[in-house]
Amino acid sequence: MTGSVSPRRADTRRNHERILAVAAESLSCSAELSFNAIARKAEVGVGTVYRHFPTPESLILAVYEREVRHLVDVVPRLLAEHSPEDAFRTWISEYLAHYMMTKRGLADALTVATKSCEKLPANAYEALAGAVSTLVAANVAAGNVRDDLNPQTVLRGLAGLFYLNPADSWREHTADLTDLIWNGMRKA
Amino acid sequence: MTGSVSPRRADTRRNHERILAVAAESLSCSAELSFNAIARKAEVGVGTVYRHFPTPESLILAVYEREVRHLVDVVPRLLAEHSPEDAFRTWISEYLAHYMMTKRGLADALTVATKSCEKLPANAYEALAGAVSTLVAANVAAGNVRDDLNPQTVLRGLAGLFYLNPADSWREHTADLTDLIWNGMRKA
Amino acid sequence: MTGSVSPRRADTRRNHERILAVAAESLSCSAELSFNAIARKAEVGVGTVYRHFPTPESLILAVYEREVRHLVDVVPRLLAEHSPEDAFRTWISEYLAHYMMTKRGLADALTVATKSCEKLPANAYEALAGAVSTLVAANVAAGNVRDDLNPQTVLRGLAGLFYLNPADSWREHTADLTDLIWNGMRKA
Amino acid sequence: MTGSVSPRRADTRRNHERILAVAAESLSCSAELSFNAIARKAEVGVGTVYRHFPTPESLILAVYEREVRHLVDVVPRLLAEHSPEDAFRTWISEYLAHYMMTKRGLADALTVATKSCEKLPANAYEALAGAVSTLVAANVAAGNVRDDLNPQTVLRGLAGLFYLNPADSWREHTADLTDLIWNGMRKA
DNA sequence: CATGAATGAGTCTTCATTCAT
DNA sequence: AATGAATGAAGACTCATTCAT
Lengths: 188, 188, 188, 188
Known about the structure:
Four copies of one chain form a homotetramer.
Chain A: H1 7-30, H2 35-42, H3 46-52, H4 56-81, H5 84-102, H6 106-112, H7 122-141, H8 151-158, H9 170-185
Chain C binds a DNA duplex through residues 6-9, 11-12, 15, 34-37, 44-48, 50-51, 56.
């Protein structure tokens, strides 16, 4: 009615964000998500959730993209501040492992790449693969690892991080797996 | 009256087997299992499923044991008929990968190692770890790989096989991942 | 758009009332209530029943309150229009007995006084006890009965009305029991 | 096969008794009885329970008769050892109240007298009424109470004992109710 | 756009009851 | 007679989805 850029718009955006946040939290622990429960926690009506995300798929997809973006965006900085090997190792231990531990649901994001049953977040998978690709490339350039590595294979090798849990000595386990993979990536 | 072992008994056993088979199929793709759906597919009453498996846990456990036994039992033969390296590679490509591709649910068997919430298939996980352990030991003895490897770490490295699907060129992907891991296992 | 108070709201209220009515009928004869059955009879979805009354307790409570309010609310009028003794006798024969005959479930309202397991209709019981209390007090004031009577005891004495049924000559039986109790209440 | 009176017979009788005992215990606290549960607790097959008691009614009936017999059988002894008034009071406080408190299910035995819905243990009710009748008669003979009392009315007046519970000061409440009724029974 | 009431399909679970052995 | 496996109806409860306001 006035000069404001439609307060409604702002509300809408906030709703979008809230729903996404709640859904992310929900997926992080149980891989189950109920539109009704999400609406309740986000303090909006169910209908609103449906308006923003017409299907469960669209919601999951949005969540995963948001989650994965973190992992992807940090890569350039890591490469700028660390040696290629350290960047690789740090990315895994400080970012990938953390996310995998908490967001069990992310497993299904990866799953997508292969299981046609749930086509969902192919994008998420590809983004992740891209991040690994960058890190691998840096290490190839540095002469640390073979130049015929398929980043997808490396990412798959790291998938075992899903099966770690905070209670255990996960940091050690993460290091062990990283060592194994890193060793496997080196020039023969 | 003579050789027959009570047809009723036979029926019961068949029911048991059918339920198990249906449940296995169900778990293979979705990690979800509905007693009702299982009963429907197995063409028995719900009550029958409950009689055989009073709790979801008992059913899942039974399925996993049945599934994993395969993988474990074959190891000795492989070691008898192949070189340690080939036994390892064959086990992965011909057995582990196959099962992982079809039995998505098995993922949760591995999960157990970490998620204490669901103590269920600890046995399954341990059995799998045992199988890997035997194969690794044979290769250590043959001087192929380092002697400080943790079989659990190796198994975790192979977890990525879950994310392969039949439609893709999974055989090649399996080989790639196996190469990566094998390389990582070798003496430095 | 003007005077109408949102038809939806009206529907909702009607639903509430219908469910309550059906539940009351249900409880009147069997003390058993099935959410499914209630939904069926009230011609609403089960979910609607759950929305209005999230737990069995909340439903039972609502029913009892509705039922008992009648009994309580009529007392002042009775005392205004009748002598204390007649008010007491009329309340029993015209109200309490009627309700007890039809609403078998009310028994459990009384039960509450003792069975701590189901705290539910404590209010209902207390309301009833309050009604009796008022009637007794009026008769004490009129010098009709002892002044050391515990209204709870009187109410308990009347509990036998539950075991009357319409088919029998219940009016006579009610009178008999009322006489017995009244006699017992009089000054010794 | 020999001179023994069929060991089978003995077993059968034992089964009968066991089932009855288990059912009694079951009814004493919850008024719910499941044939399957009873079979389990009595350590017999469900089929056996059905053989002995074809319908739920027949089982309930048998249980109630067994229970009530106690209350009835003790009356002569009480009258022999106490004054009529004390016999009446003792019967109530030491027997009737106890049973009513523990065997909530017995309530339904009384219910029967009136509620045609569940015709079950008319016999039980009549037996109880008979016991009261004897006690009242003794007190009439002793000149303690009016001679026009209907034992059924007295029994109904005592029905409130159902609504006492062990946790409360039930002994006192029982005495209060008994006083009220006794007072009401006395000559005017 | 947002809301949230209503719906009903579907899952879980318990039991009464039958029946082959 | 006794057994207990099998069956399926029925009730509890959850949730995805629609739609009137």
